[in-house]
Amino acid sequence: MTTTEYNKCVELFSDNIFRFALKSVRDTNTANDVVQDTFMRLWQHVKEVDFDKVKSYLFRIAHNLMIDYFRKNKRIADFELVNKNTYSFTDEYSDIKEQLEKAVNILPQIQKTVLMLRDYEGYSYGEIGEIAGLTNSQVKVYIYRARKKLKDYLVLKGIEL
């Protein structure tokens, strides 16, 4: 990859990686760090990476950096451990987007990652498998389970789908 191609990658993919990281880590500074570290690692291997495959390479690096972040901070939460009393329906204003974001943040990290890559970023199962290091069938299972948990959570909140 040339320096011009590297600069084009920064221009094309930095916003997408930032959104992807921000949805996972929920902190602007950390998401910026993930983007910066991702492109720093690309620069370190710029001669080895093919420009045609750089998108999945970048998202794989970002995904791995976020896994490292969560391991370091031990913020991975298990959906089954969440107190079900916090789901109770109230007559207060509830925006579907806010509720959906809350539900997505409850998901295990791997389900959250594959769901965001599929539904927010529009990647194919094969691309998600490359990024997350999973097979196509594993990706499909994680996405199915994540969507099911989201649906169950929203039904418990009394939100009509």
Compact overview of the structure:
This protein is an all-alpha fold and 161 residues long. The chain contains 7 helices and no strands.
What would CATH call the class of the largest domain? Mainly Alpha
Per DSSP E runs of 2 or more residues, the count of β-strands stands at 0
Please tell me the CATH architecture of the largest domain by its name: Orthogonal Bundle
Order of helices and strands: HHHHHHH
Output the number of helix runs. Answer: 7
Query: CATH topology of the largest domain, anyone?
Result: Arc Repressor Mutant, subunit A
Class inferred from helices and paired strands:
mainly alpha
What name goes with the CATH superfamily of the largest domain? Winged helix-like DNA-binding domain superfamily/Winged helix DNA-binding domain
Distance between the termini: 46 Å
Estimate the mean pLDDT confidence: 83
What is the molecular shape? globular
Written overview of the protein:
With 161 residues, this protein is mainly alpha-helical. It contains seven helices and no strands. The chain has helices spanning 3-25, 28-44, 54-73, 96-106, 109-120, 125-132, 136-156.
Ordered list of secondary-structure elements with their pairings:
Elements: H1 3-25, H2 28-44, H3 54-73, H4 96-106, H5 109-120, H6 125-132, H7 136-156
Helix pairs in contact: 1-2, 1-3, 2-3, 3-6, 4-7, 5-7, 6-7
Brief descriptors of the model:
161 residues; mainly alpha; Rna Polymerase Sigma Factor, Chain: A; Arc Repressor Mutant, subunit A; 2 domains; 70% helix; 0% strand
